[in-house]
Amino acid sequence: MSLYEDLLEREREGQRIKVGIIGAGQMGFGLITQISQISGMEVRGICDINLPAAEKAKNYYLSKSERKHDILVSDDFKKIIQSKDVDVIVDATGIPEVGADISLEVLKSRKHLVLLNVEVDITIGPLIYQWFNSAGLVYTGSAGDEPAATLELYEFAKSIGLEILVAGKGKNNPFIPDATPETCKEEAFRKKMNAHMLTSFQDGTKTMAEMNLLSNATGLIPDIPGMHGIEADLKTVANKLTMKENGGILNRFGVVEYVKGLAPGVFVIVKSELKPVVEELKYLKVGEGPHFVLYRPYHLASLETPRSIAKAVLYGDSTIHPLGAPVSETVAVAKRDIKAGEVIDGIGGFSVRGVLETHEEMKKNGHIPIGIISGKTIAKRTIRKGQFLTEEDVEPDTDTTIWKLRTLQDRLFSN
Known about the structure:
Layout: H1 3-13, E1 17-22, H2 26-35, E2 41-47, H3 51-64, E3 72-74, H4 77-82, E4 88-91, H5 96-108, E5 112-115, H6 118-134, E6 139-141, H7 146-159, E7 163-170, H8 181-190, H9 195-202, H10 205-218, E8 221-222, E9 230-231, H11 237-240, E10 255-260, E11 266-271, H12 275-283, E12 292-296, H13 305-315, E13 328-334, E14 343-344, E15 352-358, H14 359-365, E16 377-379, E17 394-395, H15 401-412
Parallel strand pairs: 1-2, 1-4, 2-3, 4-5, 5-6, 7-10, 8-10, 9-10
Antiparallel strand pairs: 7-11, 11-12, 13-15, 14-16, 16-17
Helix pairs in contact: 2-3, 5-6, 5-15, 6-10, 6-15, 7-10, 8-9
């Protein structure tokens, strides 16, 4: 049977998947709303530090769902995770430190975990995935987010024998590397978004993190730190994202990339060495070759997350997860001059933005993963705008859960 048919069967049997959602912001609220219309699944717990936001999500859900049942609402995520009425947890917080604590509590409670928190996944995902997998539990990123949507195309192309040259996404927001919650405040208000979230979109951190997750799930790497971020459309992207000797900008194939002009879609660029296959792709109007673009013109973000929830519970299967050791890292770069002794805030803040590079480049240069900048991270010396932060530049907050788990991950995957 299909996923949909299996959910219908759950509905008929009265065995609905009971979902707990942590984070009732834009992504969490959208997911909660969508589940009200899905057979075989129901929301049984909602957590947000802004309790009125959680109550609002509950009330909206109940107003739209034909099924009436109790929903636990709390500002303490442990109560949701530990609830006997919850089978699976969705982390929709987007905060690495919170995500680290949630991951441990979910693991302790022996439940599956679905992430709408790319930021924690790229920081400690390889470690946490190993722990969940060893416990017979599912740890997964979410369908509908660009990494998973791109991975669908990647696996489709690989399954029919095509070679992957490039995989990536269209960038939705303009790239404003100096963006801060203050510069984003008015636009965030208009769009009913959190200003810190919008900041991470505009300063590029979110794009870097998404392609970091795709890299860790496929083994593809960034061609250069930060990727190229070219402007292109479906007709020009394959010719631009080709090797330099052929008039393109790439130093190598097997890379992740983002493109201005393809949003809100995702893509893979493929080729075949078989002449009949090339001719068939031309005949089917995929392109003129020799490289072809497979393109999905949308990603539905949290609205697709229920598919990952269902796969985890029904099949014990993940949508996207790290292959093993980190392949790439999103490291911190100063958005402004930072003085010695200053507290440095993290993702979506005033101090740093994320830039993608390979794990080996990070180790070689002593760079800092942006996800561990949490709590009271202190500058040990002056850091100039545009400078990659190093281990010599900052004193991390070693009391944070994210720092402790990242240290364990580094030891686990050390050569």
